[in-house]
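step=encode ok
step=design start
structure_in=
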């Protein structure tokens, strides 16, 4: 028997951006709602399924508890 795993690391597969021209430590995250049916994330995960098969495990490493909402906005968007 053989076993293997592939670990991918990257950004959340959705439309979002940060204005890096500002010289603040954490630029605001802006959510782009141009993909209301989540077609881009669906394509991403379909590609992963085609390349690696099942199961696909996802670990959310985005911060959940913050004094000022920043990364947690992304968690809200991808879970709703």
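sequence_out=
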């Amino acid at each position: 028997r053989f076993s293997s795993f592939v670990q991918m690391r990257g950004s959340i597969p959705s439309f979002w951006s940060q204005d890096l021209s500002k010289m603040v430590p954490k630029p605001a995250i802006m959510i782009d709602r141009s993909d209301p049916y989540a077609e881009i994330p669906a394509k991403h995960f379909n590609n992963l399924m085609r390349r690696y098969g099942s199961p696909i495990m996802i670990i959310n490493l985005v911060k959940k508890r913050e004094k000022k909402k920043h990364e947690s906005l992304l968690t809200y968007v991808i879970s709703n």
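step=design ok
step=annotate ok -> The two ends are 39 Å apart (CA to CA).
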